[in-house]
Amino acid sequence: MTIGEMMLPEFDQEMASSRKILETVPEDNYGWKPHEKSMTLGRLAGHVAEMTSWAAATINQDKVEMTPGTPPTTATSKAQILQVFDGELGAARAALAGVSDEAMMQPWSLIMGGHTVFTMPRIAVFRSMVMNHMIHHRAQLGVYLRLLDVPLPGVYGPSADDKK
Q: pLDDT tens digit string along 77-130?
């Protein structure tokens, strides 16, 4: 069994949990943010959703070059944000299922504005910049939703809202 195959159950669980949270984001609050320095709810939901495209790119490419000024994904409707999330999910899962251990150990780089931000083994990038990063922002999204009094689905077991 390869590293990618071993990661599939965790990947599937985290993607399902992320989708459940995205399904609860209220469309009438996309412009809301808890602090002036915070992302809006719509931008944060978009950020969680766009990370499925990062998974396939991390596995299928040796680097990603971010272009300054590229507009980030911001939710405009529930259908749109779920389409962004779901749109790359199959490719991400297939890439993870098919990647060799050798490829997971190869260096991968993030380049921004022509400068290398970091280079790490692909497995470290997948774990930190895809999986952990999504989990971090999904939790942040959960805080936003709690502040808006939106019932939250359980992620690692029942939530306080599921226990009603």
A: 999 999 999 999 999 999 999 999 999 999 999 999 899 999 999 999 999 999
Q: Are 85 and 49 in contact (CB under 8 A)?
A: yes
47 lies in some domain:
no
- Pairing relation of β-strands 115-121 and 107-112? antiparallel
Residues 6+ apart with CB under 8 A from 46: 72, 73, 74, 75, 81, 84
In the sheet with 107-112, reading across from the earlier edge strand, the strands are 63-66, 107-112, 115-121
Q: What is the CATH number of the domain that holds 20?
A: 1.20.120
**89 neighbors 52 (Cβ within 8 angstroms):** yes
Number of domains in the chain: 1
- pTM for the predicted model, two decimal places: 0.93
Phi-psi region of 133 (alpha: psi -120 to 50; beta: other; left: phi over 0): alpha
Question: Any idea what DSSP says for residue 118?
Answer: E
- For residue 99, is it within any domain? yes
